[in-house]
Amino acid sequence: MIPKILFIDNDKNILDSFRATMHGLRKEWKSYFASTGQEALDKLGKAEFDIVISDTKMPDMDGSELLRKVAEIQPDTIRITLSGHSDMQSLLKSAKHTHQFLSKPCNTEVLIGTIRKMMELRPVLTDHKVREIITGLDTLPVLPDLYIEITNELNKPEPNLQKLGELVKKDPGISTTLLKVVNSSFFGFYNSVSSPARATILLGTDVLKGLILGVHFIQKLDKDTLGPYSIEKLWEHCLQTGYLAKEICAFMDKDEQTVTNCFVGGLLHDIGKFVFITEMNKKYQKVLEHVREFGGPVIDVEKKILGVSHAEVGAYLLGLWGFNEEIVEMVYYHHSLDNCGEIFTPTHAIHAADTLQHELIPHSKGYIFSELNTDKMALANLLDHVNDWRAVCNNLLETNKDEE
């Protein structure tokens, strides 16, 4: 069935521009248009939409209120907000009900690219089991306000360094984590960094966004409900997996952007576990209890009890939130390596870093973590590299331990 997209904007010129642009793409998806919130709701009452793209300001209804109603009527619809840089208050009000933001005026190529990206991710985004889990949550996880504010500033033609620093400092958890990461031996900067703004510039946008998401989920947790499960150890594992994946990727002589993507992919590879723990804690406790009593890799028990894995849920959300496809693929395939062929890929790095971190720094007794997928590693002629990776990772972890 051809996807349906609903565009909502009270500006006739913008809506006409959407119509003209989408007419040439009618073979890819069917486009509908509304100039008011009520008109949009009427259309939503008559048909199911895959994506809703809305301005933040409506003459008859606040943009955030409209998106809240969209979420109630069709909770599994992807919701994208169009907003100007100066409209921060409206943007933040919409954040609770939005999966992704686009700047207004929106470049046509960016808009079409975003829509196509959502469509390319349909195998993940529309998987029945994943959708059932995600839409069964009381609230679909959305991006934290600080993430929106910082991304908005970073997307400006000339980001204000002082403003970035002030934004990061608003959250002690974020600023502390940011400075800890940038000053660790894992990143290898020669001079100590004490400014959150400077740390932001050094680490880059994608790394900052990944750190914000991780800290955001930790701050949401009621630690009294976790039992013996340590969220701090999970976060430590994610951070170290990011560091090790980055090191493995650099060892394989990949370019700087790919190396950075490997860190972010490693950092977020278990983001689905954070979602399970924060949004469906009681059900996930059954997974953990089963693992303690009967053993078996966590990912297999997740599939058995919940029907989906943390890898699938994590990739689903990162796709909705607009992370690039390479990072989404790393998260989705970091256990199976099903997207890997006969050459080294960043997903190999995430998989190896994940298993080596568990091997080199054991966490909980009784857990059986996934082992290295030797068949897929052999297919890419990488088995001879594993001992080198292990030595590099062990050296990095030992160096960092000595500095603590």
TrEMBL record:
Q: Do you know which PROSITE patterns this protein is assigned to? A: HDOD, RESPONSE_REGULATORY
The record's section on CDD domains has:
REC_HupR-like
According to the UniProt entry, its GO molecular function terms are: hydrolase activity
Ordered alphabetically, the record's keywords are: Hydrolase, Phosphoprotein
Q: Give the signal sequence positions.
A: none
The modified positions for 4-aspartylphosphate read 55
User: What InterPro entries does the record tag this protein with?
Assistant: CheY-like_superfamily, HD/PDEase_dom, HDIG_dom, HDOD, RNase_Y/CdgJ, Sig_transdc_resp-reg_receiver
Q: What is this protein called?
A: Response regulator receiver modulated metal dependent phosphohydrolase
Which biological process annotations from GO are given for this protein? phosphorelay signal transduction system
Segments forming domain HDOD = 140-337
Question: Pfam families, alphabetically?
Answer: HDOD (PF08668), Response_reg (PF00072)
Q: Which PANTHER family match?
A: PTHR33525, RIBONUCLEASE Y
Species for this entry: Maridesulfovibrio salexigens (strain ATCC 14822 / DSM 2638 / NCIMB 8403 / VKM B-1763)
The UniProt record lists the Response regulatory domain at 4-119
